[in-house]
Amino acid sequence: MNKLIFSITLGCLVMPFLLSGQDPQDDTAGFRFTDEISLPATPVSDQHRTGTCWSFSALSFLESEMLRLKKPETNFSEMFIVHHTYAEKARKYVRMHGNTTFGPGGAFHDVTNMMRKYGIIPEEVYAGLNYGEEKHVHGEMDGILSQQVNAVVKNPNRKLSEVWFEPILATLDAYLGVIPQRFEYQGKSYSPQSFLREYTGLNPNDYVEITSFSHHPFYQRFILEIPDNWSWDEMYNVPLDEMEEIIDNSLRNGYTVAWAADVSEKGFLTSNKGVAMVPVKKVEDMTNAEILRWEKLSDKEKEDETFKLDKPAPELEITQELRQLEFDNYMTTDDHGMHIIGLAKDQTGKIYYKVKNSWGDYNKFDGYFYASKAYVRYKTTCLMVHKDAIPQHIREKLKL
Predict the structure, then answer these.
(1) pTM for this structure?
(2) I want to staple 337 with a disulfide (CB 3.0 to 4.6 A). Which of 57, 135, 186, 188 is the partner?
């Protein structure tokens, strides 16, 4: 059986403006979805030209957690988290003599770690747009911060000065703004820590990360080896079927899921078709005429033909072994953080996850899309869930 799979690069930094050649109102794709579960979520945000999807998606997840807890709808400040994370990352990078990751990327646990240490504030108090732009554009800031930490690591004075960190903090303050120590919100004064404690109802310790890779023992924690895990946090490892069970159990019990995945697959067609899937063309299913035509195509033409998806199609069967092979061979990379809020079916009855993205209103589903179960099994790097959303029999194995 020939299974043909091809990929293109999108990634966390691919914004809708790069896809402007595709009509977001194009309704010719032939995918029709009926939501079965659609849990409460705050409005879709726009990370724009930044690599901060991890902050947008994790905070979207936590905003839904507030709604689940019957708390007021709240828009958290993504840049509050980004400011603190960049600062912590700079300290780690210098301490490691530059032998670790430094850049705009991050992980879900960066958000809960920063909340645990520094608290959180609303978007209307701290928008992080201190540099004359209406939307987030971080290329210049990212470049300056990288130059600063690398200048420190070069250590031209043969020892670090007492003030090496101050220019880095000044850059973050200049672009994102000085973080307020106290602020007024809805007629009451808060610090970031008291806002988390008194207003949100959230406990960062309630949230855990789940993954599924066979190069480490199942039901134990390990440090997931992806570049954006700069803090070396550990995640719980479960078999693939149980990772899927955790997602489904969460949604069916009112809990949404933060989802990190590779979005560089050819089947990630969220702009023009609103779908992510793992289609496979079976040569043995072709007619003789189709086979003759197929053999005359170049590799690029075969690639295009395979993924002319205008309706639901058969998908590759995703096993633990295939998932691991893709990760080991750099074919699954940690590209993008998103937020799963529900379950849906297409017109054939196939189940998909309803996903909230952070690219603004970029497609015909108003910034949402539908990811097939095969895609999620195949390309998930990790999840964040409330620990109570995990089925009891799996929690017992994890000792949670």
Answers:
(1) 0.88
(2) 57
Question: Which of these, 2, 115, 5, 1, lies nearest to 374 by C-alpha position?
Answer: 5
Can you tell me the distance from the alpha carbon of 212 to that of 381, in angstroms, rounded to the nearest whole number?
8
Question: Cα separation of 51 and 199, whole Å?
Answer: 29
pLDDT for the residue 285: 52
5, part of any domain = no
Predicted local confidence at residue 236, as pLDDT: 98
| DSSP letter assigned to residue 380 | E
Determine the pLDDT at residue 309. 73
Q: Is residue 301 part of a domain?
A: yes
Mode of pairing for the β-strands spanning 234-237 and 207-211: parallel
Report the CATH number at residue 116.
Answer: 3.90.70.10
Residue found under tokens 């960062």:
204
Handedness of CA 170, 172, 174, 179 (dihedral sign): negative
Which segments of the chain have a pLDDT < 50?
1-11, 13-29, 283-284
Nearest Cα to 152, choosing from 143, 142, 165? Answer: 165
Total domains present in the chain: 1
Expressed as residue numbers, the domain containing 189 is 16-398
Evaluate whether residue 9 is within a structural domain.
no
DSSP letters spanning 38-60: E---PPP-B--BSS-HHHHHHHH
For residue 7, tell me if it sits in a domain: no
pLDDT of residue 304: 59
State residue 17's pLDDT score: 36
What pLDDT is recorded for position 289? 60
